Amino acid sequence: MKGNVVDLAVAVVIGTAFSGVVNALVKNVLMPLVSAIVGSPNFDQFAAITINGNTVQFGVFLTALVNFLLISAAVYFVIVMPMNKMIEFRDKKLHLGKKPEPEAEPEPIPADIQLLTEIRDALKNRA
Known about the structure:
two-stranded antiparallel ribbon, Non-ribosomal Peptide Synthetase Peptidyl Carrier Protein, Chain A, rod-shaped, mainly alpha, 3 helices
């Protein structure tokens, strides 16, 4: 039980550090590419509707959605795909995908069957 808690703590610390890396990738690499295409890296003021004095900001949701899609794409293409390739390569190298079945030893022939076979062969040779 204690080992699992330590593993979980290590995973949380690494996940926190990794979230900083992914956020930096999205903020400093991918969002500038989006802003070059669309014209603005932030869609907060892009779409806002005022109804009865209340402002509904669809742009904030759109910005969060684009950030989520970019983060998930970054995680998939930077971590998941290479990890799956490495696991596939390891399994292929270690032959883990298909385990050859051990050859079964033939069952020994019972003594009475063996004796009857010898008698049959002797009678064939006699005739």
